[in-house]
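Final report, closing paragraph on structural work. Over the funding period we assembled a curated collection of sequence-structure pairs, and we close with a single example.
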Amino acid sequence: MRAFFYRLYCALFPQLHSRAVFRKSMNLLHALDNGVLDGLTCPQRGRDTVSVWFTHPTEIDYSTFFVWAYCSRYTHAKNLGRPAHFSERRVNPDLQAREKAMLATMKFPLPRSRE
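Its predicted structure, as stored:
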């Protein structure tokens, strides 16, 4: 399981490589799992300025964004279904518009469930 999280970390934070920063970055995911969506600690600078936002650009697509307040940095992950702490209040309209435009122009669309 730890290897899975390390691969996820490398995808989310490719510019950071130390295991110490990895552990701090995992705190973002743990906070999200615990329902903490604001005031998360930046793994690099130690400031409590990271917030969680969501997008829901199509009926079946959801993404989770970690947004840094003191800079223009953000990172995101595609969700397999509705995130546990998703709410319409936490949908960021700018990020959602950007993701909707990206999905509309993809050469190779995301595979869809065969339900």
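The two ends are 28 Å apart (CA to CA). The mean pLDDT is 82. We thank the funder for supporting this effort.
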